Sequence to fold (225 residues):
Amino acid sequence: MKRISFALGCIYGLAAIADIFFVFNTYEQERLISKPLLMIVLMLMYAAETGVRSTFSKIFLCALLFSWSGDLLLMFNGFFIGGLSAFLAAHVCYIIYTLRINPGAKGVLQFQPLFGIPILAWGILLSGLLLPFLDTLKIPVIIYATVICIFWTLTLNLFGKTDKKTAALFFCGAGQFVLSDSVLAVNQFIYPFKILPPLIMLTYCSAQLLLVLASIRHLRKINSI
Fold:
């Protein structure tokens, strides 16, 4: 990793710790700095590592940009649908990226589809749990839940399509994202609890970092950077 990327990674870690601390203590004014800073630093780190020259890196950077937009929108009341839409667009970018990885090769799900059952079960259980509380938001939330589970499934199928470490980084990052969004949904619609917002941010920050590291490793492997 380049020296500047290492420095940016350290800044990202400090910003994440600060934001988790602020959200736990409900320091909303301070979060106006810490939360937007997260994706900005991560985008700079990604750009420093990849140069954003290949189609892969451009798609991935778009996902981070949409995530940054989602972070901003979700900070303010009345913009939940806007934030949800931004993160939906980010996941569409992640899905496009994942589908472009060695498309001619077969992944683990093409040999053993049953491995995808736990992800399917998670999506069904989460949707069933949320439905009674969603009112007019049923359709957008269910669409979003479906899309994030599709992305998670596609990252599982990367085993066999790329090296195991890259696949594991993508799979764990997508899984952390699903966990973060699941906890966010519980906190937003079912039962807000003090420990849940810090958990949301911990898993979210971890998810985005893992996905960035996965993409950097993937691009190195295919000699695109």
User: Anything to note?
Assistant: The chain has nine helices and no strands.
